[in-house]
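Researcher: Here's the sequence for the chain we discussed earlier.
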Amino acid sequence: MRARANTISWKQLSPIFADVVLSPWNLLVGGLLIRYLSPLDAIISIVLGYAILAVVFVLYGGLGYKKRMQSAEIFQEVFRGKFSAVFIPLLLAFGQLGWAAINISLGGSSLAILAHLPRPLGLVVYALIIGVMGSLGLYKLGYAKIVIILSSTFLAFYIGVLKLHSGDLSPFLAYHPHAQKSVFWGCSVVVASLISFATVSPDFFQNVKQKGDVARSTLLGIVAPGMFICFMGCFFFFNAPLNLVTLIAGLSFAAVPNIFNTIANTDGAMAIYTPALKFQFIFKTRFIVGLIAGLAISLIFALLGITNYLQAWLKVLSVISPVFIGVAFAAVLFDRKTFKNLPQSFSRQVYVLTVALCVLLLEHTLPVIAALLAPLVIYSLYLQYRHIHE
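Model: Thanks. This is the structure I predict for it:
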């Protein structure tokens, strides 16, 4: 076990987490929910979804505290070989680059309006800005996080006040979607929206001082602000297209929220920085080369309109990210002796089976919850089978 040096508390972690969820992309998640759910069902979905995320962060992310390991080290212990050294980092990098693309799309569109640029050029300029921030590590600065969090919060309050002033509360409370979906679907959307970040949660918890810091930082940094912004998104988009820039354009003094939106989405620099490190490690290249490659991929996704396919993107994440959490947690749950007696390829086989199951479920729902639970079931059934037949 690694020495407990340079430990941090929940007071330091909570703002880092809040920086992730207090972001305009989370407004879009709420907007997606309200397209298919009533306000009450949307609230229930948000509460249940964040309750599941809290369990994932505390139990799986808490492995970082217990084992004093990063997520990559946990995966190497569970999967072993090139599967954990190459394949897993590439998939996790892909998930982060998708969210960076959403940041570029949202922030770049507002920048284009403010600077009177064509939208594609605005996206390119914005991508360069967050690329510079990522290369210099500016997003890590405390002042930068405070400015981003305040910008996201002011954006939400600005839109919310104008929506209330226009008398939209009563129609919102009476709202019913034309195509109703289930609370389970809504809960899955919420979980999928943060599952790629949850996958690397041990990285943040490996240096916390006390076990209680894991739960405190999760509740105060993820659950409380995340639920607030997600619900605000429901209110903002119940009678509007799922397009944040279009919504802002219809507001009074639209330049003000566009400024907030431009600043708030610079947290995409973090989603560019970490994939660049993975590319550097895997392909043995310079960091700047990995950063440019990641930036180019994200920019292409943004130019192709990734925000118009939010539900499809969440389905992709439902297949990519939660399977790693499910398999890793299942492997760690059983004692080391049992785990070592399993075939070396067993974790990879469970991964493939779970992915196949998720693909079969894609047409009907977002299979994120199935991806989290299926590995536990497969491990339990296999170990029970071996116990009976040995």
